[in-house]
Amino acid sequence: MPDANSDHHTLAIIGSGFAGLGAAIRLEKLHGGSVVIFERASSLGGVWRDNDYPGAACDVQSLLYSFSFAPSHRWRHTYARQTEIRGYLEDLAREHGLIPRLRTDCAVQSLTWDPADSRWLLETARGRSTADHVVLATGSLADPSFPAIDGLDTFAGPVFHSSQWDHDVDLSGKRVAVVGTGASAIQFVPKIQPMVKSLTLFQRTAPWVMPRNDRPIPEATRKRLRTVPGYQRASRAVIYAKREIKLLAFQHPALMRIGEKEGRAHLAHAVSDPALREKLTPDYRMGCKRILLSDEYYPALAQPNVSVENGGVMKVTPTGVVDAEGGVHDVDAIIFGTGFDTSRLPLTDKVFDHNGQSMAESWGDSPRAYLGTTVAGFPNLYLMHGPNIALGHTSVIMMFESQIQYIGRAMKRAIHTGGSIEPTPQAQAKYSSDIDALTDGTVWTSGGCKSWYLDPSGRNSNLWPGSVLGYRSRAIRFAPTEHLVRTSGGPR
């Protein structure tokens, strides 16, 4: 049993974004207040704390990008801005009494399972803690991805990633290179374009960009959301249904031709120059990579102080960037909009089973988890935003809610037996086979592109390839026969 003087908790949560806070709130009856939230940064918020670049906003409607159990009537735009979302998370933490449970500037360095006491040993920046159960809510979009480019360390000017925006750098009148055309780049490029002397965009693959149609939410609508019973729930249901219907095109790629027609029209309307339009026209099926939303991106690229270079970057010199064709571009600053390292979940290389093997080692090149949440051999450990939890068509917050329901049922079973719980290897393998079958023939594997959805083995280990309702129906149906339950100190 844990020492009376030890820092022991029923539940330890690592990460204070949507997933971590949601788990702390919804699992309250099980942890009974014996919960700690470890956060490596100095404040809560996850990706919505880190990504405060100009123009940062969600690409899922505000009403859907929030918890169903904690609706907000304060959204001021169809698509919430970063400051609004971070404020929403801070309000959640305060309203549910989580601030005293939050340990900031406290990175978790390793987690090791102790089978004798059925608990996890956590080494942190503030010493050792123990917990009966651990929720790993670091998310899959936590660590920025920097491409390996020769000479980058020799560049004389400022260099930073969109998720680590350097607000001390004044870009006014500067010659700026932007590397990458991901979801962040299409948001910050239109914001910095008017202030810079020149902007050179280096893209390897042109993204599909669709109209955003963002609008301020009128005060009358916000009042209805606040005062009319059921109005917000009904509005949310309509948005959910519309997005779920779009899944059909991802599952049956031929239907994507309809969206591609709209995407090309969106491009043609904003860009009159045929040469630029050709550079910005994707050469793969829509949906194979993440579909981006913007009303400002294409018009910004059509401005005279912007140039687009295909093929990416060959190398960097002290004064500029050399493109794939050998062309030299003198610049004063370099900004990376190259997304995140999704090759592994953060910390999984520091999570060790009773034999000392890390979760990352057990996975190899292709992460697998039962319901994207629990992993055979790692008892009482739950992954939020784990393998095959990300979505290509709607809000991942709904997946988090379903994951939390499953975690609650698993925790309850383990607590009842006074021991531990994990999926059987057979159940995990069966679930992975189901994922492969659902993925087969979809746009993600047949769309003719290379995306972060697929792991180094070529397998889809990131996206849930079905409907949110389909995942929810699996998550809420707890199957005892698909789990191993052991009493404390019991044999492996």
TrEMBL record:
Q: Is Ribosomal protein given among the entry's keywords?
A: no
* Family to which the UniProt record says this protein belongs: Belongs to the FAD-binding monooxygenase family.
A molecular function annotated in GO for this UniProt entry is: oxidoreductase activity
State the Pfam families in the record.
Answer: FMO-like (PF00743)
Name under which the protein is recorded: NAD(P)/FAD-dependent oxidoreductase
Highest taxon in the source lineage: Bacteria
Q: Which InterPro entries match?
A: FAD-bind_Monooxygenase_sf (IPR051209), FAD/NAD-bd_sf (IPR036188), Flavin_mOase-like (IPR020946)
Does the keyword Nucleus belong to this entry? no
Note the SUPFAM superfamilies from the entry: FAD/NAD(P)-binding domain (SSF51905)
Q: Which organism is it from?
A: Rhodococcoides yunnanense
What keywords tag this UniProt record? FAD, Flavoprotein, Oxidoreductase
